[in-house]
Write a structure and sequence with these properties.
- The chain is of the alpha/beta class and 669 residues long.
- It has 5 domains: 81 residues; 112 residues, Ubiquitin-like (UB roll); 148 residues, no CATH class; 112 residues, no CATH class; 99 residues, Hect, E3 ligase catalytic fold, CATH 3.30.2410.
- It has 25 helices and 17 strands.
- Strands 1, 2, 3, 6 and 7 form a 5-stranded mixed β-sheet that branches.
- Strand 16 and strand 17 form a beta hairpin.
- Helix 5 packs across helix 18, helix 12 packs across helix 14 and helix 15 packs across helix 20.
Length: 669
């Protein structure tokens, strides 16, 4: 192959195929080469190469030559990323660096305004005159000049949408909202923070100007107070209650005609308790000192349209003591265990609806009763005594893997612009509640990632990290990485370079460092990138006080295998010949199931796609014709089978049809 790449087509035909010079001269006259010959048909090529063998050999030569050129181009392109440009004058690091000779540096300026409702700084977005401004300063300019420039940008002609510049006090802060010394130069700040682009914030706080308000401002304030009063009256008249077990009242239903966004907001409201009725839009989006997730106006319920005018109700009138709650008579009584009825649709809405409920931390101390709403708008008739909750958890985590994680078998959460601290904390509460109440654990999440969530003191071993990474990447990349570690000289370098480039490798590899490089890549994708998720979830999940040993036991114990599932079956002590035959069909069917179908079978029988129950009771009935079908009771983990089957194939077909539906209506009370 290497020799063929060095010669042209005509030389190959002359030396290897011994084609006549007359035919070669004709090909030269018609300018037929490696690029044009594959485009010619058999009839067009016959005048130049009468022999069929020569035509086949010529086409094969052109194919290999073109493929070799493509590989060469790919290798050259990848090497350019790893090897410094040989044409550059930069013999040593830093020599010839144009950035060092520049006199100006770029600074990004944002605006954070102090919010009196939350007693914290909140970023002012572009629609309100804020956003991010990019300005170039001399490296010798000081931070005080940046502050003045920011004030002039956000307060053009001395005013903005939230007031005049004279009504505020200002400080210049970094991304941690720490004050910056105004005498520091731009060059000093770049050296201190070691960032590619310096970002600072103008932090404003309104001065006490109650005596100097203009009539226009007072009228606006009066209007806000009226809206606030109306909002409080609305909550007073239509409060959503969480009631005790002995209370006959039920929570209001979610209207079936509402939009998906309204359903999510309603779910969050239904989970509130009386001492948290003073809701604001802060309950519906993430707010952080360094970043804010603002919700568009059409996402916010109608009563929250003017968010700036909403203040929380007086703590004297609505705030209850930690140990008391209100009963129906309006008097205080000792807090008892209460329950929440969750109304959750089947399908894509369920994931967001469950998150809406679990954004409220108080739900962790409640009993949950779940009502499922079918796609046709009707409510399932099933009574929840455990099976419905397990089914909801299975559906939630299946959706979570699809929309919030990356990875093939070992899943790792991926950051999303619409998921802030509140959403990831809610995910942590779902995990804790599901494990505490049913033993359910999302085992597809990489163990190395979960170790960071449960404890800062549990070390991640290189073996565990490498195992998770091989299950995280695609099969092809896994084979390339394993081959490189085991026998680097024989690995296909093109395939290896392509896999390394896919995971943003920045190092040249060799037999000595390939394993260390792959471990660095694994640590980046499994530990470093989801660290924001770890920090959000750990405060909730660590209430379980798990250790590495307990986590290992969880992953081994509840992951279903064909052998473990068969051990769950409890058949009647005495069975007739027909029943014994069907029991054999069932065991044979379980042995043949692949892992995905095995999870579906478990979910059909118990509500959970994992081994969270210790047995499945099997009962036999007599059903014929179209009424014959497997029937499962998920709350009691009971499977009812007809004992009338002519063959195993008939049994398998019927069960496959049931499992292929994937969504089963629970209508047994």
């Amino acid at each position: 192959m290497a020799e063929q790449e060095d010669i042209c087509l005509l030389q190959y035909l002359k030396n290897e195929r011994h084609v006549s010079e007359n035919y070669l001269d004709m090909m030269r006259m018609e300018r037929i080469d490696e690029l044009t010959l594959p485009l010619l048909g058999e009839d067009d090529l016959k005048p130049f190469l009468p022999s069929k063998g020569d035509r086949v050999a010529a086409r094969e030569f052109c194919s290999k030559k073109l493929k070799g050129n493509e590989k060469k181009t790919l290798i050259d392109r990848l090497r350019q990323k790893f090897v410094p440009n040989s044409d550059t004058n930069r013999t040593f690091r830093g020599v010839g660096n144009g950035n060092a000779s520049r006199t100006k540096r770029t600074v990004e300026i944002g605006w954070m305004n102090f919010c009196t409702d939350t007693l914290s700084y909140k970023q002012v977005r572009s629609p309100k005159g804020g956003g991010t401004r990019t300005v170039k300063f001399l490296k010798t300019d000081t931070a005080s000049l940046v502050l003045e420039k920011g004030k002039s940008l956000f307060f053009p002609e001395g005013s903005s949408k939230i007031g005049r510049v004279s009504s505020f006090s200002f400080e210049l802060c970094d991304f941690n909202l720490s004050k910056i010394d105004k005498s520091s130069s731009i060059e000093d700040l770049y050296s201190e923070f070691q960032v590619r682009t310096l970002r600072v914030y103008i932090c404003s706080k309104k001065l006490d100007t109650s005596d100097s308000e203009t009539p226009k401002m007072k009228a606006k304030s009066s209007k806000k107070n009226k809206k606030k009063k109306k909002l409080n009256e609305t909550f007073s008249a239509n409060s959503y209650e969480i009631h005790d077990e002995d209370d006959d009242q039920s929570l209001p239903d979610i209207p079936l005609s509402t939009s998906p966004v309204d359903i999510v907001e309603k779910a969050a409201q239904l989970a509130e308790i009386p001492n948290e009725l003073n809701l604001t839009t802060q309950d519906f989006h993430y707010n952080d000192s360094a970043v804010s997730f603002d919700i568009p106006a059409h996402f916010v319920p109608e009563q929250f349209e003017d968010t700036s005018s909403i203040n929380t109700a007086s703590t004297e009138t609505l705030q209850l003591s930690h140990d008391l709650q209100w009963n129906n008579s309006g008097t205080a009584k000792e807090e008892t265990k209460s329950y929440v009825t969750m109304h959750v649709h089947r399908g894509t809405l369920a994931f967001r609806e469950v998150l809406g409920y679990f954004k409220n931390p108080s739900i962790m101390n409640k009993f949950l009763t779940i009502n499922r709403i079918l796609p046709n708008g009707e409510r399932e008739m099933a009574e929840d005594t455990g099976g419905v909750l397990r089914d909801l958890l299975s559906e939630f985590w299946t959706s979570f893997y699809d929309v919030c994680t990356l990875g093939r078998e070992a899943k790792v959460p991926s950051l999303r612009h619409d998921f802030g601290n509140a959403e990831w904390e809610a995910v942590g509460r779902v995990l804790v509640y599901g494990y505490r109440e049913t033993g359910y654990w999302p085992v597809m999440l990489a163990k190395s990632f979960m170790l960071q969530v449960i404890s800062d003191e549990e070390p991640v071993t290189t073996e565990s990290l490498l195992k998770d990474f091989f299950e995280f990447v695609s099969f092809q990349d896994m084979e390339n990485f394993k081959h490189a570690i085991e026998d680097y000289p024989t690995v296909d370098q093109d395939d290896l370079l392509e896999s390394l480039d896919l995971y943003e490798c920045k190092s040249l590899t060799s037999p000595e460092n390939i394993k260390a490089v792959i471990l660095e890549i694994a640590h980046t994708h499994i530990i470093q990138k989801p660290m924001f998720v770890v920090n959000s979830m750990k405060q909730v999940v660590r209430e379980l006080h798990l250790t590495n040993e307990i986590l290992e036991d969880i992953y081994k114990r509840i992951v279903p295998t064909n052998k473990n599932v068969m051990k769950l079956f409890h058949f009647p002590d005495e069975m007739d010949p027909l029943q014994s035959e069907v029991s054999k069909h069932l065991k044979r069917y379980i042995r043949d199931l692949d892992p995905e179908k095995l999870k579906l079978f478990l979910r059909f029988c118990t509500g959970s796609n994992l081994l969270t129950m210790d047995k499945i009771s099997v009962e036999f009935t007599v059903m014929h014709g179209i009424e014959r079908r497997p029937i499962a009771h998920t709350c009691s983990c009971m499977l009812q089978l007809s004992k009338i089957y002519e063959s195993f194939m008939e049994f398998r077909l019927e069960f496959d049809n049931v499992l292929s539906e994937n969504v089963w209506v629970m209508d047994i009370i």
